[in-house]
Amino acid sequence: MENKNANKHQNPAKTRLIPVEFTELNWRFWSFVLILVLGIYLLGLFQGNVSDAVSKFGLTDPWYSPTVLVIPFVGLFRLTCYAYRKDYHRHLFDHPVACELNTRQDKLGRAYTGETRFFRVENFHRYFMYIAVAILPFFYYDFYVSLTYIPGSITLSIGGIIILVNTLAATIYTFSCHSIRHLVGGRMDCFSCTAAHKSGGKAYRFQSIFNTHHEALAWTSLAMFVFVDLYIRAVAAGIIPNLHMVL
Q1: 245 close to 156: Cβ distance less than 8 angstroms
Q2: d(CA 231, CA 240)
Q3: Contact, 160 vs 58, CB < 8 A?
Q4: What separation, in Å, do the N-terminal and C-terminal C-alpha atoms of the chain show?
Q5: The CA-based dihedral angle spanning residues 66, 71, 74, 79, taken in that order and rounded to the nearest 10 degrees
Q6: Residues in the chain, pLDDT under 50
Q7: DSSP 8-state symbol, 23
Q8: Which among 16, 148, 205, 218 would be 20 to 30 A from 159, CA to CA?
Q9: Is the distance from CB of 191 to CB of 184 less than 8 angstroms?
Q10: C-alpha distances in angstroms, 135 versus 1, 62, 66, 87, 122?
Q11: What angle do CA 26, 32, 37 make, to 5 degrees?
């Protein structure tokens, strides 16, 4: 009898290409989608003079820099990140919930749907990580532009400092990634062995300091991207001045 009842509640993730999370009436997920679509719409609607911010103020909006060409891959890097993955499965999709609850039929055979069918894209996180690392130099170049946009001088501005902080936040977040952790030490079969300890132990422990705070770094970095964009838009629109010092 128990086996028959179990078969009646098979895991939908094993039989459906489109996850059930995308078809259920879930106000958390669909309100998030609405806010996201509205944000993208406003981003394109109120462009202002952002494109002129480079020539006038030496400020390159991260959404309009050359990295915009690979934004889809950067977005996939973040979406498949372990930190974000945990948040949207738990808080947006509300699954899996605590093991003692059954609000989403967890006890009746609805197993964790991550990394199955559609969500198998999460398994490509390590490959998106390589792309994310490859574009980091472009952000540092944006900071360089903020320093040298006036010929023959070095200009240190508030906007340039903010761009640098954003770049450092993106760098630290990227290198705190679990895939980086795997590269610098996780592949070792015997981490406590003498050879392993000498070759990768220090790098592994150093990276672990940042990996411990990976989720906080992920959200901080994302918030910085939004803040930089709003700041540069405000400067380009003449709402706030970009204080600077010419050396």
Answers
A1: yes
A2: 8
A3: yes
A4: 81
A5: 160
A6: 1-3, 6-7
A7: T
A8: 218
A9: no
A10: 57, 12, 9, 25, 20
A11: 125
